[in-house]
Amino acid sequence: MSETQPSIGETLAATVPMVRTLNLEFLEASPERAVLRLPDQADFHNHVGGPHAGAMFTLAESASGAIVLAAFGDQLGRAVPLAVRAEIGYKKLAKGPVTATATLGRTAAEVVAELDAGERPEFPVNIAITREDGAVTGEMSIVWTLRPQS
């Protein structure tokens, strides 16, 4: 981003209050991959002392939003990105800080080609949530759409 354009992390922090509430850290945001970190914060722990399931959901959903903005930010003048549905699986106990890594399930070019053809494309974003030791504690899949502007 240029000096006058905010980064994707700054944009999401400014427009999505939950990003600020959870103090999410943006480690990487590109069209290929987005990586966000949820610091270990007692205020967001569950009954076993790890990050609450809702906080991990928000972390993963925010990572998906970051990659969507990175991949399709140039389409915002003609389409609105919207999450359509999400599924999450909690695999292992999460303790300490956790990181969400998001990747697109289709190429951006395929999605834009559908938009160019007058369609409302849908595409998956896959997210892995990991502990500091690298163990996958959760996996999420979110289907997004680019709704054409009327």
Automatic annotation (TrEMBL):
* Xref: CDD domains: PaaI_thioesterase (cd03443)
| InterPro entries, sorted | DUF4442 (IPR027961), HotDog_dom_sf (IPR029069)
Protein name, UniProt field:
DUF4442 domain-containing protein
Which organism is this protein's natural source?
Streptomyces violaceusniger (strain Tu 4113)
